[in-house]
């Protein structure tokens, strides 16, 4: 039913690259083709090579470079009057904006990318852009608004037999079920995603599906050993492709699993590691989640109550500002767990002076 996964963001002279190509290899090949296209005065090829460069830089956590690259790709595509290439560049920019926590900008860029994709007759970039909009709404916790879009995109991906996009949609729907407590349904969807990704040789999708399975196995079954095994398997895939972001989220999830098992010193160390990784790549959502786990671990290890209260209150404000409602509810649950006030950070800081 599904063919081998492919990477439509690797275009022009780079179409031979695999979805599993190491990102450092993608970056090197992309830069070489980009320089050749610029020397030859071929803006359309420069736009498509530049897209691969931007995506490799983004996934490697090189935020500033990725920002410059997608904009250069867009300018080259506009010079070439290549509407689909303009859409792909905007998709890359919107995805980067979401990664950086600029969710309003992400929605604007991804919306424009979807429009240009439709206008330019490229259903793949249109689908990827709509998927980006759906994922942006999902990480904000707006499940009712984006649930139907996830289901629509899943149906389209299944109809086309596109494994990578099917896996993405299954994982997004599974995550919403997990976050609302439907663990059995979440497990089944993550399991299907993992199976499709494995058959299609989609290492990135497989790693994310294994991470989801580990989360459910930990929270539903309390099976710490199995959860850690799944995360170890996922980490191998992340390292093979040098997926910096996925690896940081894997470490954060390992911290979650250890925290649930009351292995607080180990959880603390994993959260600290993930926090450093997220900060290095400028990923505010992951940074906030790692800070939350670290604050909870330190509280369990005897941290001063007032310091914990101030940290959680500040995190609540950070997440409110970014617009991450589900994560904000996680902070509220942590405050309740430790019997702490949910007042704004300034008020808490004043109270503990």
Please state the overall shape, judged from the principal axes of the Cα atoms: globular
Please state the average pLDDT score.
Answer: 92
**Range of strand content:** under 5%
Question: Rg from C-alpha positions?
Answer: 21 Å
What is the chain-wise order of helices and strands? HHHHHHHHHHHHHHHHH
Count of separate DSSP helical elements: 17
| Helix proportion | over 70%
Structural class assignment: mainly alpha
Distance between the termini: 63 Å
Could you name the ranges where pLDDT drops below 50 across 5 or more consecutive residues?
A: 345-353
- Main β-sheet, in a few words? none
Tally of extended strands? Answer: 0
């Amino acid at each position: 039913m599904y063919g081998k996964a492919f990477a439509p963001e690797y275009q022009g002279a780079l179409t031979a690259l695999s979805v599993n190509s190491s990102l450092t290899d993608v970056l090197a090949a992309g830069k070489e083709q980009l320089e050749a296209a610029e020397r030859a005065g071929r803006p359309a090829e420069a736009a498509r090579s530049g897209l691969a460069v931007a995506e490799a830089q983004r996934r490697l956590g090189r935020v500033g470079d990725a920002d410059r690259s997608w904009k250069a790709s867009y300018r080259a595509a506009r010079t070439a009057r290549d509407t689909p290439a303009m859409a792909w560049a905007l998709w890359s920019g919107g995805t980067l904006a979401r990664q950086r926590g600029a969710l309003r900008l992400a929605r604007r860029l991804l919306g424009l990318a979807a429009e240009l994709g439709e206008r330019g007759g490229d259903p793949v970039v249109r689908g990827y852009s709509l998927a980006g909009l759906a994922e942006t709404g999902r990480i904000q916790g707006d499940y009712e608004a984006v649930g139907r879009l996830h289901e629509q995109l899943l149906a389209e991906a299944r109809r086309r037999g596109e494994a990578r996009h099917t896996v993405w949609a299954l994982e997004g729907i599974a995550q919403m079920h997990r976050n609302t407590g439907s663990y059995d349904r979440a497990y089944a969807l993550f399991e299907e995603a993992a199976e499709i990704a494995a058959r299609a040789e989609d290492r990135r999708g497989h790693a994310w599906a294994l991470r989801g399975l580990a989360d459910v196995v930990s929270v539903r079954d309390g099976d710490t050993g199995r959860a850690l095994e799944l995360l170890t398997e996922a980490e191998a895939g992340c390292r093979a492709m040098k997926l910096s972001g996925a690896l940081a989220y894997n470490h954060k999830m390992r911290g979650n699993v250890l925290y649930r098992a009351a292995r607080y010193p180990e959880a603390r160390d994993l959260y600290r590691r993930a926090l450093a990784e997220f900060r290095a790549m400028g990923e505010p959502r992951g940074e906030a989640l790692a800070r939350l786990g670290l604050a909870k671990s330190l509280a369990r290890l005897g941290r001063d109550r007032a310091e914990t209260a101030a940290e959680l209150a500040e995190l609540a404000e950070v997440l409110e500002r970014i617009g991450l409602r589900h994560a904000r509810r996680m902070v509220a649950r942590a405050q309740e767990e430790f019997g702490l006030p949910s007042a704004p950070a300034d008020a808490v800081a004043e109270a503990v002076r």
